[in-house]
């Protein structure tokens, strides 16, 4: 007797039979539209899945990639946008920004064999190799399946609330400014003492990250 595929597959970092990185790469094995919504998206993380993305886009002009990111310097690498735009010869790639503290980790493919991955892992090398992460992978026969439809509808609503990422959005000072605004908004929810203790280190860190994220 052949065991049926599990309804939910757990994804971990290294100590699991199904790794998050492998599941993310496998999203691009079939045709459709792939949605990547990641609170933190570094170039090192992108480079690990880049070949799969390029093959996906080249395999069929009907395939599309939709990416929603936080545009701040500590959340997203401008090199990713530049590389995707450079390979978007047939207008298959759409990049969106959402500036309100994006912290989502949701990865979805519609089409003939839809898949949804949701959990704690961002698209970063740290998530792939070091952090203790836990995500779940749902594989169903239709995007209209009750297990997948709510996620697809949620992504659609998020896209409607987002705006297209522009080249000026990934200019270094603009990204640092977005990071400062994000941290300022978060600070309003913290006790004053915590804000004072954290303000200086955070500002210094943002300046450092603004430089580092040009290379990661």
From TrEMBL:
It comes from the Archaea. Keywords: Membrane, Transmembrane, Transmembrane helix. The keyword Membrane applies. Pfam families: PLDc_2 (PF13091). The keyword Glycoprotein does not apply. The chain crosses the membrane at residues 195-215. Gene3D superfamilies: Endonuclease Chain A. Residues 98-127 form the PLD phosphodiesterase domain. One of its GO terms (molecular function) is catalytic activity. This is PLD domain protein. It comes from Natrialba magadii (strain ATCC 43099 / DSM 3394 / CCM 3739 / CIP 104546 / IAM 13178 / JCM 8861 / NBRC 102185 / NCIMB 2190 / MS3).
